[in-house]
Amino acid sequence: MSHVVVIGGGVSGLVAAYRLRKLLGPAARLTVLEQSDRLGGKLCTVDLDGTPTDVGAEAFVMRDPAAADLVAELGLGAALVHPEKAAATIHAGGATVSLPKRTFLGVPAGPDAVRDVLSAEAVERVAGEASLPPLRLEQDEDVAVGAVLAERMGREVVDHLVEPLLGGVYAGRADRLGLRATMPALVAALDETGSLTAAASRLLPSAQGTPKPIFGALRGGMTALVDELARQSGAEISLSTTVRRLARPEGSLQERAEGWRVEVGPVPRPRFIEADAVVLAVPPPAARRLLDEAAPEASAAYARIEVGSMAVVSMVLPEDVRLPDASGVLLAVGERYRDGTPFTAKAFTFTSRKWGGERVRLRASVGRVGEEQSLRRDDDALLTDVLADLAELSGVDAKPVAWAVTRWGGGLPQYGVGHAAEVGVIERAVAAVPGLAVAGATFRGVGIPACVRTATAAAERVAAHLAL
Predict the structure, then answer these.
(1) Which of 78, 126, 224, 263 has its CA 20 to 30 A from that of 50?
(2) Residues 254 and 163 in one domain
C-alpha cells in the first residue's frame, strides 16, 4: 500500500490529496501535515455575529474554469454564487469613479476606456502608445510592470490603475512585479501586436452578447470547499504539526534512494513518518528550508522569491447603514484625505453589495510590500484607521456590530522580475528527484484556479512515479 505525505494543508495541499485519492484508489494511505491549527491556508471563513465571513480569499476567477469545475466535481455546484450587478469603483485624483471596464489588469485597451480616471495629458499618452516603436520581449527577458508601463503610457496609468489592481492580487508593488509572470497572456499578445493597448484589447471579451460572470464564490464561505476536499480525500489530517526535515531514509544512497523520511514534532522529541512520495505545498520560506537537502537548487530558487504580508479587516455593520451602490472601491497610489492624511486601506469590498445577503458587511485590505509599518498597528488601531478611511471615502460613519482583523504574514509570494525563470529552476530541480512534487501559489498564479492546476499536476506526477 503506497503512502503519500502532503506537507501543507492549504487549498493546494488539499486538492493534491483529493486528486491522489482519485488516482491511487481507496487502498492508498494519504497523510496531510499542517503546521497551523486549521486547514485551508488562505481560505478561511469565520463567524461574525452569526454571519459566515471569508477573511482570506473570498472568490475565484471564472475565466480559468479550474476552480468552478472542481466545485461542481465535489458536489458543491448549488452553493456557487456570482456577484450582484453593483460595479467596482476606484478613488484616484481625489475622486471616486467607476473602474474602467476596457482594461486588462489595469492596462487600458485604448484612451476612451480611461478618460474618467486619468488626466487629459495621461489619456493622450495612452492614445499614442500604439504608434510607439513595437514592444517585444525576448524569450527569457522580463521587465518590471511599473517601469514598462510608465515608459510607454506614463506614470499615471501605473498609479491610478495598474498598481491598485495588482496590489489587490499580490499585495505587491508594480515597480517590483515582473510583467512576464503577472501578465503572461499580455506578453504573449505583445509578441503579435507590439503594443500594450492593442494587446489588452485583444485579450478583453467582446461587448456583444450576455456578459459571463467574472468571479464565483461559495454561499456560506470557502470553508465548504476546504471541508469537502478534506472529506473526499480520505486523508489522515495532522494539524499543529511542524515538519522540520525532509530526507531520504537513513542508510540509503541518494542516487538509489526510494521513499522519504519526514521529521515532525519538537526538536527534543522528533517523530518520523516514512512515505513513498511527498507533495510539498507550502510558501517559499518553508519550501526553501525543507528542500535544502533533497533539492538544493530548488531550495536556492525558493529563497530568491520574496513574500509579502497584508491584513483583512472584516466587519458587520448596523442594519440601518447604507453602503455606496458599488461592489467596492480601490485606492490609487498616493491618495489622501482632504486634509492630507494618507489612507490606511488599499481597497474596500462592500461585501453585501457585491454578494448580497441580509446583513450589511464589508472588508478592507491593508498593506503592500514596502508598507509593512501599517501592519504593525494593533487590531483596534487598524479598525479605527479603516473606519476613518470609510467615512472619508463614502460618508459612512458607523461602528461595527462585529469585526475581525486577519493578518496574512509572509505567505504571499511576489512575482518579481525574473520570477518565471525561478519557477523554471524549481520545476527542473524537483523533476530530477523521484517521488517529490511541489504545488502552490508560488508558480503560475496566486488565485484558487492556479493552485488547483499546480496541485493536480503534482498529484499526477506522484501517481505516475508510484506506478513505475
Answers:
(1) 78
(2) no
- CA angle (458, 461, 462) in 5-degree steps: 90
Determine how many CB atoms are found less than 10 A away from the CB of residue 157. 28
pLDDT for 166-200, tens place per residue? Answer: 888 888 899 999 999 999 999 999 999 999 999 99
Q: What confidence tens digit (pLDDT) does each residue in 19-66 have?
A: 999 999 999 999 999 999 999 999 999 999 999 999 999 999 999 999
How many Å separate Cα 285 from the centre of its chain?
17
The verdict on 384 and 456 lying in the same domain is no
The grid cell for 41 is 491556508
Range of the domain at 432: 3-39+226-305+415-467
Is residue 47 included in any domain, yes or no? no
Residue 99 has what DSSP assignment? P
Last residue of some domain: 161, 188, 203?
A: 203
Cell numbers representing residue 122 in the block? 495621461
| Domain-located, residue 285 | yes
Phi first, then psi: give them for residue 338, nearest 5 degrees.
Answer: -65, -25
- The answer for residues whose C-beta is within 8 angstroms of residue 23's C-beta and 6 or more apart is 459, 460, 463
Amino acid at 431: A
Residues 259 and 274: their CA atoms lie apart, in Å, by 7
Cβ atoms within 10 Å of 396's Cβ, excluding its own: 18
CATH classification at residue 66 = 3.90.660.20
